[in-house]
Amino acid sequence: MSASDGPRPSLRFRDRSVFDGVARQEVGSVDLAAHSVAVLVPSLTALGTGLAFPAMIGPGFWLSTLLGFGVVFLLASTFGEFSTRFRSAGTLYTFVAKGLGPAPALVVAGCLVVGYAAMIGFGLTDAAGRADAALDASGLGGAGPWRIGALFLVGVIMCLYAMTRGIHWSTRAALVAEAASFVILGAVLVVWTLRYGLPSTGAFSLQGASPGRILLGAATIVTLTLAFESSASLGLETRRPFREVPLALKSSLALAAVLFVIANVVATARPADAPSIWTWRWLSPGADRSVSDALVLVVLAWSLVALAMCVWSALARLLFSMSREGILPAALGRVDTRGIPVVATLAVLPLVVTPPVFAMLAGVGLDGFSWQLKLSASVVLCVAYASAAASLPLFLRSIDEVTHGPVLAAVIGGIGAAAVAANELVRELRDGNPLGLALLAVAFAVGLGMWVQTGRGSTPADRYVGMHDEALAGAVILAPATPGDGHVD
């Protein structure tokens, strides 16, 4: 029977978007790229782990770099498959809803809430630590832990001010921060090359390489790219989301990988007895005071605030999206006159402030706490990555667009993300640290709690989980029906 033999399907289009009121056409390709790059903090990664990586991993360090960024690039390709077909503010939560259904999607939403909040906490506490180290490098040491707490609050205020001014403020602030950090990174790498000379080809030998250390190094690379997919949360506000979101995901990773590799190469010429880079003296190694290194630390602190601000924006848009779907309270779906989900933005504040405050009250040093918070966040976020990767084949099958390339990328990327989550969880438990397991338990409890509270699974309301921006009635032109062909209502 041909298509014309049966009745036309009944088509219903909304008069207004479920996301009505949010700013539209505000984010261009430059702004979106700034968000993506800021979340990866490539300059900080290169100046920290990048310069230390050859010594950490030993022979075969470059294989770790290729494997780690390769896994993340496959995940970016997988998420891009979703982003080229619909636009939303829910990122992985929406992706999983399209493939695995409502219950897994809500669990992934819990993972994103916990993981993003941890990443924001990491960004702000680490920024406070770098700013405090900058003051020490300038000769203003001995202030005590209260100064880091005060600097943390300054970072919170900076984020809130930029985000409540408009999406342009936050993305442009991120752009300026990353531009400054690139200049600083270039200066440090030039100084190191002049000081230690060019690397030899022998540094890339695999003689004595340990497969286990190489794989652990690759897992480390993945943990350095957490929340890289958060730029997809700006899909509703992006001018050409189907093109720009996937491009931003991949191009930002490519930039971060290139800078990391350059830092690796420069570091191979550094003698083994040189002062440790973890003293944060790149330009004046071994010195107690260094104004130039203080400047580097200030720029890196600014870059970390930009990381926190961008992830904060993504989490606010996730809460906004779920509110508009009827899953979270309606108040979180309110926007102001500039189209900013301001209530959702403010609602993130307690999630950001609580962990560092508890750490300070418990007498835990914020420097070590911030890094551990990021490592523990890798457990929940990599679970979310693996779930989104697993949902792609099912989603493509549902729209009859299954092809071998995207499915293979999703399978490999998902296995890699799951392996990283399992490795970090086992490592933490072996060391007697249950933070990753606790965050994962909280994430699952939040997700399942939303599932139970909303009564999903037994009503047609399932369709409201993971909604995307749909065509509106006023934007659709339908061919007139011919008598006997059915109807369109």
Describe the structure.
This protein has 489 residues and is an all-alpha fold. The chain has one domain: Amino acid/polyamine transporter I, CATH 1.20.1740.10. Helices cover 65% and strands 0% of the residues. Helix 5 crosses helix 12, helix 8 crosses helix 14 and helix 13 runs antiparallel to helix 14. The longest helix has 36 residues.
Give a nutshell description of this structure.
This protein has helices at residues 29-40, 42-57, 61-83, 92-99, 102-137, 145-165, 167-196, 211-223, 241-267, 291-324, 342-347, 349-361, 366-398, 404-430, 435-454. With 489 residues, the chain is mostly helical. α1 packs across α10, α3 (61-83) crosses α14 and α13 (366-398) runs antiparallel to α14 (404-430).
Cα-atom radius of gyration:
24 Å
- What is the distance, rounded to the nearest whole angstrom, between the alpha carbons of the first and last residues? 24 Å
| CATH class descriptor name | Mainly Alpha
What's the overall average pLDDT, rounded?
87
Proportion of beta-strand residues: under 5%
Tell me about the largest β-sheet.
Answer: none
Helix/sheet category = mainly alpha
Number of domains: 1
Shape: globular
Output the CATH homologous superfamily: Amino acid/polyamine transporter I
Order of helices and strands: HHHHHHHHHHHHHHH
* Helical segment count: 15
Would you give the CATH topology?
Amino acid/polyamine transporter I
Instruction: Give the proportion of residues in helices.
Output: 55-70%
Which residues form runs of ≥5 with pLDDT under 50?
1-11, 457-463, 485-489
CATH architecture: Up-down Bundle
- List how many beta strands DSSP finds: 0
Keywords: Cell membrane, Membrane, Transmembrane, Transmembrane helix
Subcellular location: Cell membrane
Transmembrane segments: 61-82, 103-124, 144-163, 175-194, 214-235, 247-267, 294-320, 340-363, 375-396, 403-422, 434-452
Membrane topology: Multi-pass membrane protein
